[in-house]
C-alpha cells in the first residue's frame, strides 16, 4: 500500500533532462571572477525549483495514474518518458541544491528545503546522456510486467489480485505450492537482468549526488545519518523480536498439527506458502488454522458481516470516510468518487496494488484498488484513506513540505486508524449485533488475530530493504541476488520457499515494491508508529480498558490533535511531529509490546516445551 502525489511523483523516481551543456568558449584573461553565491541566491533557487516541480508534477501524476489504471504499450511509453523527464529534473535540482547548501548564512527553512531536494530522489539517474531515459524505461517495464503478471492454479492462469485472494483461502499444500512457484517464476525471474541494470545506473546517479550508493541515500532521508538510521532499525527490531519468535513457534506447531511432518516440520523454518500470503508477510488469512479453542472463536467474521449487510466496494469506502468524518475531518471531494478506481476493470490490465493518490496537491484525491468484499480490504480502505486525509492536511504548505514527517508516518496514519476497527466500532456503524460482541474471554483470540498481521509483518518489513541496501552497496552481487534473499528470509522471518531456488530465479521481483522501487523500511516503521499513535490517542480519549479494545471513532478532540500533526507535513524534523501528537521524540516498539503483552504471556505458556527459533 503506497501513497502517490505530486512530491512523490517528482522526487520518488527521481527525474528532467540534465541541462544541455553549452559549448565552452575561451575565457578572456581579464574576465571577472564569478560572484560568490549568497543566501538570496539560494532562496531564489528554492522558490524556482518548487514552482517547476509543482507545475511539472500535475501532468506527471496524471500520466502515472493512466498508466497504472490502463496498462498498454502506449501508456507504458508515456509513463517512461514522463519518468525520465522527472528524473532529469530532480537530479538537476539535487546537484544544484548540493552547491547552494555550502553557502553560509542560510535560513533554517532554506537549509531544510535544499536537503529535501538533494536527498528526496528514490532512483537518481546520472547526468550521462540517455541514462535517465534508460532508467525510466526499465522501471516502467518492470512495474508493468508485475501488473500484467500471472500465476497458475490447477494449471490455469490466474491474475495477481486473484492469486493473492486464493493464497488466503486455499488449504491444499499442493495448490499453494503451485501458486507460489508459478507467481515467483513467471513474475520475478524475468526481471533479474533489468533489476541489475537499474541498480548500476541509479548508483552512478547517487555517486554524483555525493552518496555512497542508493541505499545510503535512502537512509539519509530521516533527519539523521545513514549509519544512525541503520542502527535505529536494528534497535527497534530487537525490541519486538521476542514477540515474533513467540508467534512463529506457536504458528509452526499449529501448521504441523494440520499438515503433518511431511509438509511442515515441528522444528526449523516454516514453509512460506502455508502462511496465507504470497510473501508470508501477513498471516491473518490462516487464523482459522491457529485459532485457540474457545477463545479463538470470535463469533463473527468481518467479511461475512459486510456481505450480510449488502456492502459493496463503494459502501466499504463510504464507511472508511465515515470514520474520518467522525473525527471531524471534512468529507472527501465529489471528484474522489468519480475518479478513483474501486474495482478491477474487466476490459484492461491495471495495477491492483492498493495506493492513494493526490493528483493536484489540492483536492484531487483518489484511491486505486481492486476491492473485494472482505475484512482485509475493509482495513485497507481505512489505511489508504489515511494517506488521502494526510495529503489534504498539508496541502497549504510549500510544495517541498507536502509530504509525511517521514515516509513511515504516511503509512502509519491509516494503520493507526484501522486499529480502531474493534468490535465496538463495528457495532457503532451497524455491522455487528451488540449481543455478539466478543466477551473478555475472547481477548486472546482478538489479539492473536491482530498479531497474525501486525507482528508477523515486522521481519518482512525490515528485510526487503536490508536486501536492497546490500544490493546497492555491492555486498550482494547479481549472481547472488536469490541466495541473499533466501538467507535474509530465513534469518529474519524463519521461512523457506516450498521448493529449492537457484540463481536463475529472482524472487524479490515477485513483490511489487521491488520492481516499482518503493522503499520499504517505511512499512516497518509504520507498524511501530501506528501503535505509538494509537496508544497516545486512546490516552487522550480517556480510555481506561484493555488497549486493544479502544476505538477513537467519534472523538473529535483526538481528531483535532491528529489534524494538527498532519498539517505539519514535512516542514519540521519528524521528532517534532511525533512529539506534537504523542509527547515523545523517539520511535519505539514499546507501545506494540504493551498492546500485545497479554498475548505474549499466553503464547509463552502455549510454547512451553516446544523448540523456539529455526
Class based on secondary structure composition and strand pairing: mainly alpha
Measured distance between first and last alpha carbons: 30 Å
Oligomerization: single chain
Beta-strand portion reads: under 5%
The description of the largest β-sheet is:
3 strands, mixed
Low-confidence stretches: 5-29
Radius of gyration: 24 Å
E-strand count: 7
Average pLDDT score: 91
**Order of strands across the widest beta sheet?**
1-5-6
Any key phrases for this structure?
mainly alpha, three-stranded mixed beta sheet, two-stranded antiparallel ribbon
Descriptive notes:
The longest helix is centred in the middle third of the chain and has 34 residues, at 226-259. With 614 residues, the protein is mainly alpha-helical. The strands form three sheets. The protein has a three-stranded mixed sheet with strand order 1-5-6, with helices on both faces. The protein is 56% helix and 4% strand. The two termini are 30 Å apart. It has helices at 6-12, 39-69, 73-100, 108-119, 131-147, 160-169, 173-188, 192-208, 214-219, 226-259, 287-290, 302-308, 313-326, 334-339, 375-393, 407-418, 423-428, 443-473, 481-493, 521-540, 556-566, 574-582, 590-595, 597-606, and strands at residues 2-5, 150-153, 156-159, 270-271, 355-358, 365-368, 495-496.
State the gist of this model.
Helix content is 56%, strand content 4%.
Topology:
Blueprint: E1 2-5, H1 6-12, H2 39-69, H3 73-100, H4 108-119, H5 131-147, E2 150-153, E3 156-159, H6 160-169, H7 173-188, H8 192-208, H9 214-219, H10 226-259, E4 270-271, H11 287-290, H12 302-308, H13 313-326, H14 334-339, E5 355-358, E6 365-368, H15 375-393, H16 407-418, H17 423-428, H18 443-473, H19 481-493, E7 495-496, H20 521-540, H21 556-566, H22 574-582, H23 590-595, H24 597-606
Parallel strand pairs: 1-5, 4-7
Antiparallel strand pairs: 2-3, 5-6
Amino acid at each position: 500500500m503506497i501513497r502517490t502525489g505530486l512530491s512523490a511523483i517528482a522526487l520518488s523516481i527521481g527525474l528532467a533532462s540534465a541541462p544541455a551543456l553549452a559549448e565552452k568558449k575561451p575565457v578572456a584573461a581579464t574576465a571577472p571572477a564569478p560572484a560568490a553565491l549568497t543566501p538570496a541566491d539560494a532562496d531564489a533557487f528554492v522558490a524556482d525549483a518548487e514552482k517547476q516541480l509543482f507545475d511539472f508534477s500535475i501532468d506527471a501524476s496524471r500520466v502515472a495514474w493512466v498508466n497504472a489504471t490502463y496498462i498498454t504499450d502506449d501508456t507504458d511509453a508515456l509513463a517512461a518518458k514522463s519518468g525520465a523527464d522527472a528524473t532529469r529534473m530532480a537530479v538537476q535540482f539535487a546537484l544544484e541544491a548540493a552547491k547552494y547548501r555550502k553557502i553560509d548564512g542560510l535560513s533554517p527553512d532554506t537549509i531544510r528545503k535544499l536537503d529535501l531536494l538533494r536527498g528526496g530522489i528514490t532512483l537518481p539517474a546520472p547526468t550521462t546522456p540517455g541514462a535517465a531515459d534508460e532508467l525510466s524505461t526499465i522501471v516502467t517495464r518492470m512495474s508493468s510486467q508485475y501488473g500484467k503478471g500471472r500465476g497458475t492454479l490447477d494449471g490455469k492462469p490466474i491474475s495477481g489480485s486473484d492469486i493473492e485472494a486464493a493464497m488466503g483461502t486455499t488449504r491444499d499444500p499442493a495448490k499453494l505450492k503451485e501458486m507460489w512457484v508459478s507467481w515467483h517464476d513467471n513474475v520475478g525471474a524475468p526481471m533479474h537482468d533489468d533489476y541489475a541494470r537499474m541498480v548500476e545506473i541509479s548508483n552512478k546517479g547517487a555517486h554524483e549526488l555525493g552518496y555512497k550508493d542508493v541505499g545510503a541515500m535512502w537512509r539519509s532521508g530521516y533527519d539523521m545519518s545513514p549509519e544512525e538510521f541503520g542502527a535505529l532499525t536494528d534497535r527497534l527490531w530487537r525490541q519486538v523480536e521476542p514477540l515474533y519468535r513467540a508467534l512463529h513457534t506457536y504458528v509452526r506447531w499449529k501448521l504441523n498439527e494440520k499438515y503433518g511432518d511431511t509438509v511442515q516440520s515441528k522444528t526449523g523454518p516454516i514453509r512460506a506458502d502455508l502462511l496465507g500470503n504470497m510473501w508470508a508477510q501477513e498471516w491473518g488469512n490462516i487464523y482459522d488454522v491457529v485459532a485457540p479453542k474457545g477463545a479463538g472463536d470470535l463469533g463473527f467474521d468481518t467479511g461475512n458481516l459486510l456481505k450480510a449487510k449488502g456492502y459493496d466496494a463503494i459502501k466499504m469506502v463510504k464507511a472508511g470516510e465515515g470514520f474520518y468524518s467522525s473525527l471531524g475531518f471534512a468529507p472527501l471531494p465529489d471528484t474522489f468518487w468519480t475518479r478513483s478506481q474501486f474495482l478491477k476493470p474487466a476490459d484492461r490490465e491495471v495495477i491492483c496494488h492498493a495506493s492513494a493518490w493526490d493528483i493536484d496537491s489540492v483536492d484531487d484525491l483518489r484511491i486505486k484498488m481492486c476491492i473485494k468484499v472482505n475484512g482485509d480490504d475493509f482495513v485497507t480502505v481505512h489505511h489508504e484513506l489515511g494517506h488521502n486525509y494526510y495529503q489534504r492536511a498539508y496541502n497549504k504548505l510549500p510544495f517541498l513540505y507536502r509530504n509525511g514527517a517521514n515516509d513511515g508516518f504516511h503509512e502509519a496514519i491509516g494503520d493507526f486508524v484501522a486499529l480502531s476497527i474493534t468490535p465496538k466500532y463495528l457495532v457503532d456503524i451497524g455491522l455487528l449485533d451488540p449481543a455478539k460482541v466478543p466477551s473478555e474471554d475472547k481477548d486472546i483470540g482478538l489479539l492473536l488475530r491482530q498479531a497474525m498481521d501486525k507482528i508477523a509483518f515486522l521481519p518482512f518489513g525490515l528485510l526487503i530493504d536490508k536486501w536492497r541496501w546490500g544490493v546497492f552497496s555491492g555486498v550482494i552481487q547479481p549472481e547472488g541476488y536469490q541466495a541473499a534473499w533466501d538467507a535474509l528470509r530465513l534469518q529474519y522471518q524463519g521461512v523457506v520457499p516450498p521448493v529449492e531456488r537457484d540463481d536463475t530465479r529472482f524472487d524479490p521481483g515477485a513483490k511489487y515494491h521491488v520492481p516499482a522501487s518503493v522503499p520499504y523500511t517505511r512499512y516497518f516503521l509504520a507498524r511501530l508508529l501506528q501503535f505509538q499513535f494509537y496508544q497516545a490517542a486512546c490516552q487522550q480519549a480517556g480510555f481506561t480498558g484493555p488497549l486493544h479494545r479502544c476505538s477513537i471513532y467519534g472523538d473529535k478532540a483526538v481528531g483535532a490533535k491528529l489534524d494538527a500533526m498532519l498539517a505539519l507535513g514535512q516542514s519540521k524534523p519528524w521528532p517534532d511531529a511525533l512529539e506534537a501528537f504523542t509527547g515523545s521524540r523517539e520511535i519505539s516498539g514499546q507501545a506494540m509490546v504493551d498492546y500485545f503483552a497479554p498475548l505474549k504471556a499466553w503464547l509463552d505458556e502455549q510454547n512451553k516445551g516446544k523448540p523456539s527459533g529455526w
